Structure formats: structure tokens, C-alpha cells
Amino acid sequence: MPPGNYYFQETAAPAGYVFDSSKLNFTIALQTSPIVATVSAKNSEKTGSVLLTKTDEDTGNILPSAVFDLYKSDGTKVQSDLVTDSKGQILVNSLKPGNYYFQETSAPSGYVLDNKKLTFTVELQTIPQLAKVLAQNEQQTGSVELTKTDGDTNLVLPGANFSLYDHTGKEIRSDLITDNSGQIKVDGLKPGDYYFQEIAPPAGYDLNSEILNFTIAFQSTVKVATVSLTNSESTGVVALTKIDSDTGQVLAGAIFDLYKADGTRIQSDLTTNTQGQIEVSDLKPGDYYFQETAAPSGYELDSNKLNFTIVLQTTTKVTQVIAKNAEKTGSVSLTKVDSESGNKLAGAIFSLFDDKGKLLKSGLVTNSAGELIVTGLKPGKYYFLETTAPEGYILDTAKHYNFEIEIQKTAKISTITVANTKRAVILPDTGESTGSLTAVCGFIFITLAAVIKRKLKKVHKIK
């Protein structure tokens, strides 16, 4: 080329590079010696872009407000505090071809930070290319706490067994057992709807199959969901049996009221049936008592409290209560009389026996009115036996004076009359045989007549 000034001008850039249309000036000098002019032309690689999209790991919903830093692959920070917009996106332009990575520095509210490196490459831009990066976050998990209590006392109940389900009915956890504080705590639950259901109650309690719904809220701040469930104690049964305190025979018609130990009346006018029983069911474990308000006819009222306990029904148990009544007692009045005149005789002494010959009382003496009275005798058969006759009267130790005390539906006094005959009077000897014989004969006649008369009276009484 002749000496002079020249320039190059690029008309087409290499693929992937930026076209440079600037003039590249150079001069061809006078060639006193051979000189080669040199020109250097440079092209910049075309820059690319990257688009990061942030979504919910489970739902795919876009997530704004995630914050990232951008690095070259060698760790050189390129940009910081890049925030996903309302579309969950970050767009970064003017990136030269090469390897890069995003790293999350702050997760959206309610989500777990994911600080792993999200690598990507900006390719040589022979044609425009947009690098894309998908970033996902999982929601922060929450917790639930279940408390199991007694429906009456509010005492906590260990040993209840539950299963946990999601809103579709899928079982998530099983064999969740309440601890000594009556609680179950489950962590790691993603926001959503769930429910507990009791599988087995604590020992001695009825199963409560109620569905316990709860929601794990979006964890923008840490929240623990709480649920509670009560159980009613299994109820028990008490059977009261009323018997005669002496014979053990069952007694119908006794009336009772039933109370809690604190005096709260639960039921009234409970009456023993023909088997002498009252049965009361649906009693919760605890202390109770029966109290008699009316005794069977002919029996003494026993107003003492009949305490009993319904124990925790780990197995079905019937509590037994025995109530006894003593029959009302009666009285007997014995009157001692002269067999001839009917005059009352004091000083006769008797013993009292039951119908089996058992001595009950002795030394019973008729008073000045010829009477003795014995009280406190239970219904049954008895007899008196005279042990000492009044002075001047004949004693008959072989004779039983029988009587009976009836059932005392109303107060009754049994009465019995006992007659004694005077001893014979022996006259002194005067020496006059004829007169003496006559007197003796007369006495014998009178005595025989008295004996016959007495026997006739007894026969009349028996009739």
C-alpha cells in the first residue's frame, strides 16, 4: 500500500460477540526500510440474562420477597440483596458468558431458608438466550399439642392412644400415647388441616371417638396448635341386699335414698324387690352411701349410712352392699293368780326360755300386782317355767307356760295368766278319834273339790 493514512471498519462481528463499527486508524509510513503497520481490533462477548423464579415446594405458588445474592462460580459476589418481585422473580441482565450461582439470604415469611447454591450458566450469546433458575422453599412446619383430661375432675389422663390424620383422612401417625401430663405433642406438621381420633381410652374410661379437628397455621411466627379432649370414667353398678339380721332372710319393701359422699342426693325412694335387692347402675367411680328411710313392715329402721365405693372400672365390677334390719321387739305380761279366788299373787319367781329350751332370763318375780313384764323379745315362741311358788302355794316345775310374740307391724303385748293352788292345811290331833276322822274326811273332800274345780277351769281356758 502507498504510504498514507487508512482505517479498518468492522462490518460483521464474530458469532457471540458485540459488533464494533468504530474506525481502526493506521498509517503506512515511507518505506525507507520495510515496515509493517499493525492494527488490533477487539470484540466484547455478548452479555446474557438470568431469570430466577421462586415457588412453594408443595403448591407451586409463586413467592415474593425472597432475598438472594449473586456470585460468580469462583465466589466473587456480583450483586446482593436481589428480591423476588410480586411474580416471584428476579431478572439480572448484562452477565458475561460464564458460570454463576444464586444463594438465598432471606426466605419469604413462613418459609424455611434454603441456602444451597443454585448454579447456572450464561452461554455464549450466538443467539439471545435467557438462563432460567427455579428456586423452591418449603413452608415452615408447626406443632400441635393435645391434652387429655377427666370430664368431671379435669385431672390429666395418661395412657390414651390416638392416631393423627390429614384433611383427606390419610393416617399420618399412629400409637400416639398421652404421657404422665396427659399430653401428646407432634412436631413437623406443614400448614393445613388435620384431626386426632382416639383409638383406645385410658384404663377405666369410656372411649371418646369424637374427631378433634385442628389447623396448623402458616408459620409467619412460631405457633403451636392446641386441642383438648375429655373422657368420662366408665360407670359401675351397686347392688344392695336387705336381710333379716337374725335369720338372713331377704326383706322386700325397704326404702333407701342414695347419696354421694359429700351428701348430694342422687336418687330417692329406692325400694328392695322380692329378692330384697336394689340395683343402681351408671355410677361414676367415687364414694357413696345408702340411707334407709323406711324399714320393711315389722322391722326397726336402721338410719346408719351404708358406705360403699365404686372403683375405677378397669374391668366390670358390681359393688355389693349388705343392709340388715332387726325385727321390732315385743313384750309379754304374766299375771299370777290364786286358782280359787283369782287374787293376784306376788313373789312367784319364773325363768324365761325360747322355743328351743334356751334360758333367756331367770329370777323374774311377780310384783305386788301379781305381774311381771318382759320387753325386747323378738317375734317367736317362748315359755315361762315357775321356779318358786308364792308362799303357801304348790309349785309345778314341770309345766310350761307357752306364749308367742307376733311380728310387730303394730305394737302388741302378749299376755299370760298363771294360777297357783294353795297347799292343804293339816289339823292337829286332839285325842277325839271320831271328831278327828270327820275333820280329816271333810278336809279331803274340800281339797278334792278344789282340785276338780281348778282342772275344770283349765279345761275351759284351753277351749
Question: Secondary-structure map with pairings?
Answer:
Blueprint: E1 4-9, E2 23-28, E3 48-56, E4 67-72, E5 77-83, E6 89-95, E7 98-106, E8 118-122, E9 130-137, E10 142-150, E11 161-166, E12 171-177, E13 183-189, E14 192-200, E15 212-216, E16 224-231, E17 236-244, E18 255-260, E19 265-271, E20 277-283, E21 286-294, E22 306-310, E23 318-325, E24 330-338, E25 349-354, E26 359-365, E27 371-377, E28 380-388, E29 400-405, E30 413-420, H1 433-462
Parallel strand pairs: 3-9, 10-16, 17-23, 24-30
Antiparallel strand pairs: 1-2, 3-6, 4-5, 4-7, 7-8, 10-13, 11-12, 11-14, 14-15, 17-20, 18-19, 18-21, 21-22, 24-27, 25-26, 25-28, 28-29
Which terms would index this structure?
463 residues, Immunoglobulin-like, 5 domains, four-stranded antiparallel beta sheet, disordered C terminus
CATH architecture call of the largest domain: Sandwich
- Helix-and-strand structural type: mainly beta
Low-confidence stretches: 432-441, 458-463
- In total, the number of strands is 30
Organism: Lactovum miscens
Family: Belongs to the serine-aspartate repeat-containing protein (SDr) family.
InterPro entries: Ig-like_fold (IPR013783), SpaA_PFL_dom_1 (IPR041033)
Domain SpaA-like prealbumin fold: 2-37, 48-124, 142-225, 238-319, 330-417
Describe the model.
The protein is mainly beta. The protein has five domains: 48-137, Immunoglobulins (Immunoglobulin-like, Sandwich), CATH 2.60.40.10; 142-231, Sandwich (Immunoglobulin-like), CATH 2.60.40; 236-325, Immunoglobulins (Immunoglobulin-like, Sandwich), CATH 2.60.40.10; 330-420, Immunoglobulins (Immunoglobulin-like); 424-463. Helix content is 6%, strand content 47%. The chain has one helix and 30 strands. It has one helix at 433-462, and strands at residues 4-9, 23-28, 48-56, 67-72, 77-83, 89-95, 98-106, 118-122, 130-137, 142-150, 161-166, 171-177, 183-189, 192-200, 212-216, 224-231, 236-244, 255-260, 265-271, 277-283, 286-294, 306-310, 318-325, 330-338, 349-354, 359-365, 371-377, 380-388, 400-405, 413-420. The strands form nine sheets. The chain has a four-stranded antiparallel beta sheet, with no helix packed on it. Strands 12-11-14-15 form a four-stranded antiparallel beta sheet, with no helix packed on it. A four-stranded antiparallel beta sheet has the order 19-18-21-22, with no helix packed on it. A hairpin with a 4-residue loop joins strand 11 and strand 12 (171-177). The radius of gyration is 60 Å and the shape is rod-shaped. It comes from Lactovum miscens.
